[in-house]
Amino acid sequence: MGKVTGFLEIDRQDRRYAPAGDRIRHFREFVIPLSEEATRDQAARCMNCGIPYCHTGCPVNNQIPDWNDLVYKDEWQEALRNLHSTNNFPEFTGRVCPAPCEASCTLNLTDTPVTIKTIECAIVDRGWQEGWIVPEPASTKSGKSVGIIGAGPAGLACAQQLARAGHEVHVYERWSKAGGLLRYGIPDFKMEKHLIDRRVQQMEAEGVVFHYDCEVGVSVPPSQLMGRHHALVLAGGAEKPRDLTIPGRDLAGIHFAMDFLPQQNRRVSKEPIPANSVPPILAGGKHVVVIGGGDTGSDCIGTSVRQGALSVTQLEIMPRPPEKENKLLTWPNWPLKLRTSSSHEEGAEREFSVMTTKFTGSKNGQVEKLHCVRLDDKLQPVAGSDFELRADLVLLAMGFVSPLHEGLLEWLGVATDKRGNVQADTADYRASVDKVFACGDMRRGQSLVVWAIREGRQCAHSVDQFLMGSTTLPR
Ligand SMILES: Cc1cc2nc3c(=O)[nH]c(=O)nc-3n(C[C@H](O)[C@H](O)[C@H](O)COP(=O)(O)OP(=O)(O)OC[C@H]3O[C@@H](n4cnc5c(N)ncnc54)[C@H](O)[C@@H]3O)c2cc1C
Ligand code: SF4
């Protein structure tokens, strides 16, 4: 703990956003970093608690007080080494993590948690700027080969750990580039994609081989990979979207969020939109309704606003959460409370406790209206509360049910749990089929980037143990 009285003397200060009027004109990141001096001051606020709740609040168990202290003492390179010892990709989490660590910080009891995510991002961004982040190839090879299906954060973290342990690692990815939902779901204004490219370059220099445009179970038979590798890791995400099967669902202009968002991300990076995808979906000049209140819905709002939507309304079936949590009941856990994203601030209307009962449209089959009803606190319709909403484009962002079962999972015959995810526990990440492992959203269901990184790392530990009989990889 660098400065004993830091938390008493220094106010919390966090990164700011560029003004909404400016940032909606482009798709680039708009978070303004703190200066080096301000970051150091913020790190000085950490109290190095006897029980650091932030350790367990953070899914990768980042050693937060340690690197806060190192930043305070101006030992940035050592802070980076410490950070990388628990997190392969802090530049991803430093941008898109919801920061459960800050919810569990002791200073959050007075609503002034240490700006942990900002400090994490500053450490790793500085590491890249200074050239401290370089490939770390294994000094000896194990002679074992691992196939990883899916290049999202779980597959990437698993691949990097296993390559550094000396294994030959091949990553098979259906899309043309690595990153999974980090690249194709999360918009560039939250995280620019060159950050993924440079990690991929680092991993290639460490020996990881990427096979793109390669859908295992469709263009590549799983039997080929089972024969080629000593172990196979399933990291294919949870891609089956939750649908809204109400009258009018088949009208034109109603799309899943994940048909809409990847198109825009590909436009930004000038990657061709695949020929087999739905025709271009654009919000410009339209009244847009987003159904679903999570991260995906929020990303649909920010993307629609940037495309020039006339209006954006977000509907959430659940009641409006409280503005503030009751700390004595919730701390140090992640509280249910109203969260307003940067996209919400860019001009969306939000409606809570609303259920859509049907869509109606024009004679030529284009959606024109949503028919809705308000719900009471028991989620029952309130009599006489029906209303209509105009919509030219409806985006369904109600979450994801499970991984896709057709193709890969059916062929392998792996058991699934009652939610339809690949069955494997977090003790060893082993699926029901010999030498097959599973991690990330494909195992745990729709989740967060930081959980995917944790599972990828822990799964690598298990695979290494399985291949070699012992392992020095951390869990
Ligand atoms: C729009 C959106 C916004 C989000 N925003 C946030 C956020 O702000 N913060 C946050 O923490 N989390 C966010 N999430 C959640 C987060 O992105 C996921 O939890 C995380 O990416 C899961 O990582 P994963 O590696 O398990 O799976 P994924 O990222 O889904 O990657 C799986 C990869 O496997 C590939 N694949 C699947 N099947 C095959 C196959 N048969 N053959 C070859 N390849 C295959 C897919 O193409 C994909 O690239 C968001 C999700 C969405 C959809
Ligand atoms: S990964 Fe997320 S939870 Fe962990 S320290 Fe970073 S922001 Fe906090």
UniProtKB/TrEMBL annotation:
The keyword Amino-acid biosynthesis applies. Pathway: Amino-acid biosynthesis. Pfam families: Fer4_20, Pyr_redox_2. Residues 36-70 form the 4Fe-4S ferredoxin-type domain. One of its GO terms (biological process) is glutamate biosynthetic process. One of its GO terms (molecular function) is iron-sulfur cluster binding. Coiled coil: none annotated. InterPro entries: 4Fe4S_Fe-S-bd, DPD_II, FAD/NAD-bd_sf, FAD/NAD-binding_dom, Glut_synth_ssu1, Glutamate_Synthase, Helical_ferredxn. PROSITE patterns: 4FE4S_FER_2. Keywords: Amino-acid biosynthesis, Glutamate biosynthesis, Oxidoreductase. SUPFAM superfamilies: alpha-helical ferredoxin, Nucleotide-binding domain. This is Glutamate synthase subunit beta. It comes from Blastochloris sulfoviridis. The lineage of its organism: Bacteria, Pseudomonadati, Pseudomonadota, Alphaproteobacteria, Hyphomicrobiales.
